[in-house]
Amino acid sequence: MDYNYDFIKACHGKPVSRTPVWLMRQAGRYLPQYRKIREKVAFLELCKTPELAAEVTLQPVDVLGVDAAILFSDILVPIEPMGQRLHYSPAPVLEPPVRSAADVDALRVLQPEQDVPFVLDTIRLLRRELEGRVPLIGFGGAPFTLACYMVEGAGSRHFLALKRLMYQAPEVYARLMEKITDTSIVYLRAQAEAGAQALQIFDSWGGILSPADYQRHVLPYSRRLLTSLGDLGIPLIHFVKGAGAMLDLVSMAGGQVIGLDWSIGLNRARMILGENVAVQGNLDPAVLLGRQDVIEREVRRILDENAGRPGHIFNLGHGILPQVPPENAAFLVDCVHRLS
């Protein structure tokens, strides 16, 4: 394990010189450098072009001074080779939606080197570019969140088609989740083998379920995914948005680091999770739309809640908003470094 980086040290609960910070969706629309590239290239083409994806990944490292880079891609990239057509208009659309046993049977498990070589090539490029600067985080969607998109065919407010499948045909839901979990395992393993130094699993929609349904319908698959990646020897970050009321269940899935949104205080989260689990978070992204004195106040509050305990990575509670001024994002990073 490479302990030269504060980010890696913090993932393992070791002392750091200063609190490491990176931002979810830190490579994105709030940066003019990113928008300039997107004016010429469609989103999915950008994800599939290693040189451009690497360039975009590096932008926030250069502009903001963050302590980790995260691969520029999309959680739905591995779904397309499974058998659904993927396009953006501008939000993602997956066709045809998976609604039946026959639809599940038609899906295939990903073969990373054959199906998504561009992701692995991007990681290899980035490791050469980033060596000695900051570590690289790979990522993927958690099985439940991927299932939400695959069954709905798009984003949704309530994910009723997914819940209908889960309640009306639990055996079909289970087969779908097994197949997605198989794909997620090989996809994330391939990222690590290509050079990713940590992996984040995004469960953006895990919080839409009750704790009982999460335990029954999500936890077994997330736990199998994280357990299957445990021998890689790199930090695994597990982020479930909206899970403040069931962190005890989330932690049962595993991972060295639990990502937190802003629905639970950092101190309370650490009490629930215990001293052996690192945490990542948890500033409300909307704070970055405010004045810089407000940003500094909120950074100080979160650092004070952590009270100097090892195993804290500063981050937002979800992705950075497109409307955020880049200078505010840079100010946030500076505050974290200066105040810690």
Description:
By secondary structure, the protein is of the alpha/beta class. 47% of the residues lie in helices and 12% in strands. The chain has 16 helices and nine strands. Helix 4 runs parallel beside helix 7, helix 10 packs parallel to helix 12 and helix 15 packs parallel to helix 16. The chain is globular. The chain starts with 5 loop residues before the first helix and ends with a helix.
H and E string = HHHHEEEHHHEHHHEHHEHEHEHEH
Shape: globular
How would you write the strand order of the largest sheet?
Answer: 1-4-5-6-7-8-9
Distance between the termini: 24 Å
Q: Radius of gyration over alpha carbons?
A: 19 Å
Ranges with pLDDT <50 over ≥5 residues? Answer: none
Task: Give average pLDDT, whole number.
Answer: 97
| Structural class category | alpha/beta
Largest sheet: 7 strands, parallel
Number of E-type strands: 9
* Fraction of residues in β-strands: 5-15%
Number of helices: 16
Helical content band: 40-55%
Write a short abstract of this structure:
This protein has 340 residues and is α/β, with parallel strands linked by helices.
